[in-house]
Every structure is written in structure tokens, then in C-alpha cells.
Specification:
Length: 124
């Protein structure tokens, strides 16, 4: 029997590390960091965003179906995220996947999910 994407990402612990590494990458990426740096001064809000991201990817990858955040359109409404910014965030996610030694097939599955979310996030 094959492992779920959730299991291949390392379960909650692995996804938590990937989310932490991704947020760190976003903070250091000049193409998107203006959206993330303000959260350094709001650690409680950043913790909530990270928690929702962990829950979202856990639920969407075959883990526990607990997600307490907003739907993607509502969460990104008014942000007017450009296609280029979205691609930069995907690059950061893939750097985090590499840092956590995620295999190529798993990365392809993650890319498929990220691509399916694009229309719900870009230009909202």
C-alpha cells in the first residue's frame, strides 16, 4: 500500500518544518518579503497563519481533516497577489521541500496542489 502525501511529507511534524522553512524563505525573498516582514512584529498573527497553513496542507494531503482557517479566496481577497509573486512563493516552498529532503514524486504532487490553488489566490 502506498503512503499518503501527508505521510510522505513527514506527517504533522514534517509539514510544520516545511511551513517554518517556507515562511523563513518568504521573509528573505525580496520578491515577496514585503507581504511577510510585517508579521515579524506580530508574532501571534504569524503563529496563526502558520497554524492554518499546517492544518490546510495536513488536511489536503491525507492527514487529519481539521482546518480552521478561511477558504483560499476569502483568505487572499484584497491582496492582489500577482502571478509572479505566486511563482516566487512556489519557488520558496520547493526550496523548503529540498531542505527537508522530500523526494521528486512527492514534490510533483505538491506542485499539482499548488497549481490547483493558483486561481483561488492570484489577483483576488
Amino acid at each position: 500500500m502506498t503512503k499518503t502525501l501527508y505521510e510522505r511529507l513527514g506527517g504533522r511534524e514534517g509539514i510544520s518544518r516545511i511551513v517554518d522553512d517556507t515562511v523563513d524563505a518568504h521573509m528573505n525573498n525580496p520578491a515577496v518579503n514585503a507581504r511577510f516582514l510585517p508579521f515579524k512584529e506580530q508574532p501571534e498573527k504569524l503563529a496563526v497563519i502558520k497554524q492554518h497553513t499546517i492544518e490546510f496542507f495536513s488536511a489536503g494531503s491525507g492527514g487529519p481533516p481539521i482546518y480552521n482557517g478561511k477558504d483560499m479566496v476569502t483568505a487572499h481577497k484584497g491582496m492582489n497577489i500577482s502571478p509572479a509573486e505566486y511563482m516566487h512563493t512556489i519557488d520558496d516552498i520547493f526550496a523548503a521541500l529540498d531542505k527537508n529532503s522530500i523526494d521528486e514524486n512527492t514534490k510533483k504532487d505538491v506542485l499539482s496542489i499548488l497549481w490547483s490553488l493558483k486561481g483561488m489566490i492570484v489577483s483576488q
